[in-house]
Amino acid sequence: HMDGVRAALRLKAYRANYKFEEGYMFLMPELAVLKREAQFFALEALDAIAAKDIPRAIAAVGDITRIGECLKDDPILISQLVRFACHQIALSMTERLLKEHSLTGAECDQLEKVMTGVKQDDGIKHAMVGERVCSWAMMDGSSKELARVMTFEPAGDSSFDVKTLGVSLMQLAGMTGADKRLMGETYDELIRALDKPDYAARDEIRDCFNTMTQKAQTFPPKVFTLMLMPALDKSAQ
Hints:
- The protein is mainly α.
- The protein has eleven helices and no strands.
C-alpha cells in the first residue's frame, strides 16, 4: 500500500474529484484519505527513528510533505488547513528525529531538501479567493438553498417551509444583497491583508472581522454574514 502511495506521489499533478456543481453541500472525502496517508508515513518515520535508520526516516518525512503539497492549489480553505496539518506532522517527525539522533552534514542537507515544501506561501489567500466564490454562489442561490444553511430540517417539513418563505422575503427586501455586499467587502479586505507578512497582517485581520461584526449588526441585519464569516476568523492563525 505504501509503495502504491509513493508511486502516486511521483506523478506530476494531483486533482481531487470535487463535485462543485453540488454547491456548498459538496463533499471532500479525499481530504481524510490524504491525512490518513500522512499519518501512515509518520508511523513509518517513527519506526525508522527507533531502528536508527535515519535515511528512511528522512524519506518518510519527505513523503509527508509531498502529501501536503498535493493540496497546494486547492481553492478551498479546509483543503489548505489539511495541507498545513500534514506539514505539522512532518515538523513533529523532524523534531523527534533531531531530538533522538545526531545527523551528519549529508543527512542534514537531505533533510533540508525534503523540508522545502514546508514553507509559508499564499495558500490561505488562495483559499479565501475560493471561499469568496463559494459564498457568493450560495447567496445567489434559491431561497430553499439559503434556508438549508439556516436549518437542518428536510424539505417539506413545516419548519423548513416557513424558513424558506422567510428567506424569500429577505431576498425581495434586498437583505440578502446587503449580506453579499458585506461578505465581498470583508473578503477583499482579508485578501489584501494576506499579501502582507503574517506578523503585519495579524492585527489587520482581527480588525477586519471586528468591523464586519459591527456592520453585520446594523440595519438591515446581515444574518448570513454573522452565521458564516466568523468561522474564518481563526484561519489566519
